[in-house]
Description:
Radius of gyration: 21 Å
Largest sheet: 5 strands, antiparallel
Number of strands: 5
Structural class: alpha+beta
Amino acid sequence: MYELVNANAGLAAIEADLRRIVDSGKALLSADLVLLENGEHREIMPGILSFRAWTTKAQLPDELWADYCLRTYQEGSAELDVLRQFETQIQNLPKEDSSGIFLQINFGKQADPLLLVPQNKMDVQRAEAAVAAGYPTVEPILMELLEWIQDYNWPVAYVLRPFLATVGMPLEHHLRKILRGDDDIWKYYVMEIVENSRELTIALRDQLERIVISPTSGETEEELDQCAREVLEKYGLAPSSTENL
């Protein structure tokens, strides 16, 4: 869940909005700076749609929910000075309700699985909490967790990928979407998850065969055709043809 707060409102007003969210029983997770023009997202910097302004720390095992919410408010409000880096841009933008630089405040309710989603690549604490919660608790956030293994150099990826490799068939829909996409490095990292499950391999056979028989140039460059072939051969599923792919 998130709420957009216009940065033109000033730091005091934004801090009041943070307090209102926390007083309603929600914990602040992070905040992103976004640029809206007539209600549509635009690049806030060249090639970048949003800028992570700040992230709060995960709830501690023995921390009461009310104490956690208050702490996230304290951590978030202490980071509002980041807006001063964009002071010139903010002053020069239109002040209509649908245009300008906004702070997208991300928050979660108690026991919300979103609390387990890492907020940055270093957020190992939330990644470990997601693993500890296990499946099916993390079922609603499987795609969000998969997004954090797009680069295996990220510390959170080291925590999440071995766990995700044990989930099996509940990942089919999400993995199919990834394999149909154009992020070839992400495809490479999810191949290990597919390889770990005969059921997933059978379910995704059409996508694996497509990569083997008719790979894109990017898939060939990342050697995904060879990876897909090895996964299929592991379970005795030799590629057949591209018919109905």
